[in-house]
Amino acid sequence: MSLHNNELRGIPLTPREREVMAWMVRGKANKVIAGALGISIRTVEVHRARLMAKMGVRNAVELVVAMHARASAAPGRPPPWATLAEPRDPDPFDNPPSE
Asked: If you write DSSP's letter for every residue of the chain in order, what string do you get?
């Protein structure tokens, strides 16, 4: 399954919706998704709501179940969320406080 092919219902998703969906399928919280994508938590919430409406699901669990079912129906192809880099915790030594 490819996240670039109008997933569950033949409805095109925006690139950002595909990104948010991939993070959701991996079980990431809105705060983590926002940090990983460099957007606000509210923006993640908007993308999630639009994505779920387009996909015809009522909640994130239904979306995840549907996406896992689609991924297991396409053997030999990695699930779309497998290629995302894990967000890392900020390193306090990356930006030491200025004196």
From this structure: --TTS-TTTS----HHHHHHHHHHHTT--HHHHHHHHT--HHHHHHHHHHHHHHHT-SSHHHHHHHHHHHHHTSTTS--GGGGSPPP-PPPTTTSPPP-
